[in-house]
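[User] Once you have settled down, look closely at the record that follows, and write a paragraph about the fold.
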Amino acid sequence: MQATVGDQLVQHGRVVGQHDKVGEIVEVLGPGGNPPFRVRFEDGHVGVCSPGPDTEIRHKETQH
């Protein structure tokens, strides 16, 4: 799973009623665009994420 700064990281809710968490990738810490990523979420929280199977990357050039 590769990303660049400005892409969105979306963590899908895993249980009924849990909303997706959407954040902007502000730093790519792995080599060649690979995880981990530093992500700023909509609530202002910044954290380091290594995406799992419930996560997708929305690349900035394909966002609407």
